[in-house]
Every structure is written in C-alpha cells, then in structure tokens.
Amino acid sequence: MDDTDIILSVDGVAKTYADGPKALDSVSLSIRRGEILALLGPNGAGKTTLISIICGLVSPSAGSVIVDGHDIVSDYRAARAAIGLVPQEVQLEPFEKVLDAARFSRGLFGKARDDAYLQRMLTALSLWDKRRSEVKALSGGMKRRVLIAKALAHEPRILFLDEPTAGVDVELRKDMWAVVEELRSNGVTIILTTHYIEEAEAIADRVGIISGGRLVLVEEKGSLMRRLGRRELVLTLGDGEDLPPALARHGLSRSADGTFVYTFTEEGSLAALLADLAAAGVTVRDLETRRRSLEDIFVELVKNGADA
C-alpha cells in the first residue's frame, strides 16, 4: 500500500482501563483514502474503544494514531478537524431545527458559514425539505441522517459511522447504504461498525474483524469471500438411489433429509463431480448451490481466530 494513499494509520494501539481488562491489544491498521472499511465484532470486542481513541475521546495506553498526517495527541485540533463522527446513540437537541443543527456543528470547528455547502449536503441526505423542522418531529431514520449531517458539516475527510442503521427498518437501511456510497464517491473515507453483516457485504471495500480487543483480520472483501466463502452443492437423487463407491473420492456427505452435500471452492472440482455423476449414470433429480455468507465467515473467525 502506497504511503501517500494512507489517510489513517493506527500503530500498536492498546487500551487498558484501571477497573477492567485490556480493551484493545496492540491494534495496527492502515486505511486508504476514499475506501469503505467495515469493522465487525461482537459486543465488547473493542470497536467503539478504537473509534473513541482515533477521534480523541479516549486516551490510548500505548501506540500512536496519525490522521491525514496529524498526530492525535501532539496535533489534536488538526487531527480532529479531519474526522466526522456519527455515534451509535441518537443524541440531538429536540427543539433545534435541522439547518441550525448543521450550522452549529460547522461553527464548532471554526469553519466559516457556507450555506451553499450545507444545502448540497442536506439535499444529498434528503433533509433539505426538512431543514426548518424541529428534530423532535422527525422519524428515527431522519434523525440518523441529521447525525450524519452534523458530522459532515465541517467537511471532514474521514467519517466514522458507529452502528449507523441500528433500529432502522430495512428500507431506510438501504437508503443509508446509498448515502454512504454517495459520500465515498465525493472522496470521503468511511469506517463503519455494524452488527448487520449484510451491510458490510453490500458496501465495504475491506473488512476488519475485532475480537477480544485484537484485530483478528483485515482483508479485501472480495479476496476474503474467495478465500473463505466456500460453496455447497446440494444434490437430490432419484428415488431409492445412492451414490456408487466410485464417487467416494469427492467426499460428499449425506444429510438427514436424504440429500447429498458437496463443499467446494474451485469451479473445476465441481465440473469433475458432475462429469463423474453422469458417467456413473446417477439420476440427479434436483441440485442447488449455495454460498457461505460473510456472516458465516465472521462467526467462524471470531470463534477460531484468523485461521478459519
């Protein structure tokens, strides 16, 4: 990875709280400009602690973080100005109007008033028509969008989304994915934490998995799915038929419902099985292929570590 492409560098970051166990254990991570990274992990894995350290809300016990060339400790203001944070909890002033909330957030970072930028941003978030509405009058999904608007008001180059679609219905969740893709197309680097595995599978470029305070794995999503996304072929044979001994070398397993399951990663091995079935005269009444999902991979990696 070219150093000029790296916008966020985390090096050996650890965090141990005085009244508890180690929350993070020597986490190192480099994030490219303009990418979407999904951080997955069970509750208590360390995702929010890592984000809080990068955003300057929590001090690390060890290690360093560089945000767009700025150290989060020695050059805190510049580092923090490069970051927008959308927290997991909806914390908004109920009587504040949408446009005023965005203006206030922009002012907090010392940015000059720019209503043209705020209009473009709120329009992209489908909030412009609600700009004079009080927050308390908005739906849960719209309140989530207001949080994103506040985080983007000062034009950050990195956006952290901590469980952005928690409690949001499926339709609004898909709308949020479209918003994230639009932000990326405008050059914003996005780090997303989520419990919705399909969210990561749909929009992330890379996937990072945190478990027990350790970064178990960081890999391109496509590469990860090719490497660990094993596929299965489910065969239903003719009535009363069984597999001949000559096909034992393929390692098919018989399910309780009488079907046979063949696990494969390479298309060539599937072709060889089908050729052998035809040569043996086996009647295949039905067949179905299914692919192991990112959720299956995630569960296995968290359970067994990076050697899944």
Automatic annotation (TrEMBL):
The keyword ATP-binding applies. The keyword Disulfide bond does not apply. Keywords: ATP-binding, Nucleotide-binding, Transport. One of its GO terms (molecular function) is ATP hydrolysis activity. InterPro entries: AAA+_ATPase (IPR003593), ABC_transporter-like_ATP-bd (IPR003439), ABC_transporter-like_CS (IPR017871), ABC_transporter_ATP-binding (IPR050763), DrrA1/2-like_C (IPR025302), P-loop_NTPase (IPR027417). SUPFAM superfamilies: P-loop containing nucleoside triphosphate hydrolases. Residues 8-237 form the ABC transporter domain. Gene3D superfamilies: P-loop containing nucleotide triphosphate hydrolases. Transmembrane segments: none annotated. It holds the Pfam family ABC_tran. It comes from the Bacteria. SMART domains: AAA (SM00382). PROSITE patterns: ABC_TRANSPORTER_1, ABC_TRANSPORTER_2. Belongs to the ABC transporter superfamily. This is ABC transporter ATP-binding protein. The lineage of its organism: Bacteria, Pseudomonadati, Pseudomonadota, Alphaproteobacteria, Hyphomicrobiales.
